[in-house]
Write a structure and sequence with these properties.
The protein is α/β, with parallel strands linked by helices. 34% of the residues lie in helices and 21% in strands. β3 and β4 form a beta hairpin. The chain is globular, with a radius of gyration of 23 Å.
């Protein structure tokens, strides 16, 4: 019997679990001895599902949509697409193309739903389409004067392009200075805690991709044509349908983790990696603290890391060989934006559904998955209407509304350190001032969830990332994957793709890791696919 190749995977989120399954499936466990180290008791990272008193909370909202067919097929193999209408589909007479022979979500939990995507912007006590569209409602809400100013401002940006050396110029080139100042400047500063001119344009390239006024116009025209478009033709920010696990995103990752265990993957929870030892220019072992605080060392032929780069480098630094001072300086200077979600269970909403989209509720609730709060008068960044993501996230979906208020902050700052009671009172006050609810008397239950290192940020030492990447790649058996593992603001599908590339390298013996780092960075991906 040949010796197995030992692979230690750090992190049980989308990137780590994708790597584990890709290595172990189809008899891979005969060749690889795979161990997953997860620092918590939960799986999915920020794609986990939080349970509270019979209701479920999606941390940040996760649409299951990708232009990478590998990923779409992968998800569908884990949780098959619905073959019968869901509860709200049936009650509202809503149509989706159902999967022949697919499971019935009313009879089983192991199913992926098809969902309609509706999101809007809240600004100046008005609702606008998200992304901004040139609809009659938008023009009405802006008024004639603002519409003309925004229009001429956009035309100026068409003929006078600014150098895209920061995020402010990136947005102005695509939307004009007026729309930028109204809908992007304040929200971006709310999200990152920095002025957009201080942030690299790389963030816009990764998150906004090909979206622009011209992209919005093109999408609006194509929607009026009879030909049905392939998902590859639509900008990610403009998609109108996505998949979603019946019980939230964490359900998919909990299923993957169980599948991994079944084929022989060792999964260890409460395992905080504190040291990465080296030998002959490679990582030789991974040291973690177990649930009792004892140090445990695992030898590794290959290491796949989705832990934050800052923590990864500090784990190397903690080894006897240590890490170079300049590399530790870059890693420790990499910034993150942290995140707090306050879930509020309310009896009803003050605002009414004035759209043509039918919804559940008594009275019917607004149809939004997300409401982006781009009004600078409020600290909250987004509202999630969990009822609209999946009716199965809410214990009493007909007579209560489960809302998530998303706040961007810094770990340890005043908002982060608020007690649960004060954070909830703050959220209730904002929702009342926005006119979403009548007041505290409407709130039946609440839950606050803190999420550290939710968003890798693109300032401070970020511009020195190429130096750090070169040094990390010098360890021939280290693969950095996922959002925090690469300090890239990746979507879930991009994080998975980095792991697929890393596993392919391990299998084939490819030594260059450019394919792993280049997921979601190439211009062709943003603007063409």
């Amino acid at each position: 019997m040949t010796n197995k190749q030992s692979v230690v995977i750090i992190g049980g989120g989308p990137a780590g679990l994708t790597a584990a399954w890709e290595l172990a499936k189809d008899g891979g466990s005969e060749r690889y001895d795979v161990t997953v180290l997860e620092a918590t008791k939960q799986f999915g990272g920020i794609s986990r599902t939080v349970r509270h008193n019979g209701n479920r909370m999606d941390i940040g909202g996760h649409r299951f949509f990708s232009k990478d067919d590998r990923i779409m097929d992968w998800w569908k193999n884990v949780l098959p697409l619905q073959g019968a209408p869901s509860y709200d589909d049936k009650k509202l007479g809503r149509h989706h193309d159902l999967e022949p022979g697919g499971p019935d979500p009313e009879k089983t939990d192991k199913v992926m739903l098809k969902r309609h995507r509706v999101s809007r912007i809240y600004w100046n006590h008005h609702f606008f389409d998200y992304p901004i569209s040139l609809s009659w409602n938008t023009l009405q809400a802006l008024g004639f004067r603002l519409t003309m100013v925004a229009g001429f401002s956009y035309l100026k940006s068409v003929f006078h392009k600014l150098p895209e050396d920061n995020l402010e110029n990136f947005y102005i080139n695509r939307f004009g200075r007026k729309l930028y100042s109204m809908f992007f400047a304040g929200y971006t500063e709310k999200l990152w805690g920095r002025a957009p001119k201080e942030i690299s344009a790389d963030w816009g390239a990764q998150r906004v991709k090909g979206l622009s006024i011209m992209g919005v116009l093109k999408n609006a025209v194509q929607k009026m044509l009879p030909k049905k478009r392939d998902s590859h033709e639509v900008e990610t920010s403009l998609i109108e349908e996505f998949w979603y696990p019946k019980l939230g995103p964490g359900q998919l990752w909990e299923t993957v983790e169980a599948n991994c265990r079944e084929v022989g993957v060792h999964v260890i929870t409460d395992a905080k990696v504190v040291e990465l030892d080296q030998r002959d220019g490679r990582l030789s072992s991974v040291v973690y603290l177990d649930a009792e605080g004892k140090k445990v060392s695992l030898e590794a032929d290959e290491v796949i890391s989705s832990m934050p780069i800052k923590d990864l480098v500090n784990a190397v630094k903690a080894s006897p060989q240590s890490a170079p001072k300049d590399m530790a300086e870059i890693a420790n200077g990499l910034p993150y934006r942290d995140f707090v979600t306050v879930g509020l269970l309310v009896k009803k909403l003050r605002i009414r559904n004035t759209t043509d989209t039918p919804t559940l509720g008594n009275p019917p609730i607004v149809p939004d998955c997300w409401i982006y709060v781009q009004d600078p008068g409020f600290k909250v960044g987004r509202l999630q209407m969990f009822n609209n993501w999946s009716p199965y996230l809410v214990k009493d979906v007909d007579d209560t509304v489960w809302i998530g208020l998303e706040y961007f902050c810094e770990e340890g700052d005043d908002f982060w350190n608020l007690s649960d009671e004060k954070a909830t009172a703050f959220a209730v006050d904002e929702l009342t001032r926005m006119g979403i609810i009548n007041g505290p008397q409407d709130v039946m239950d609440s839950h606050r969830e803190r999420v550290p290192k939710a968003y890798p940020a693109y300032f401070d030492t970020y511009d020195r990332m190429p130096e750090l990447v070169e040094w990390l790649d010098s360890f021939g058996n280290l693969y950095c994957v996922g959002r925090n593992g690469q300090h890239h603001y990746n979507n879930q599908d991009h994080s998975m793709a980095t792991s697929m590339e890393a596993v392919d390298n391990i299998r084939t013996g490819r030594t260059s890791k450019t394919n792993v780092w280049n997921v979601n960075t190439e211009k062709s991906y943003h603007e063409e696919k």
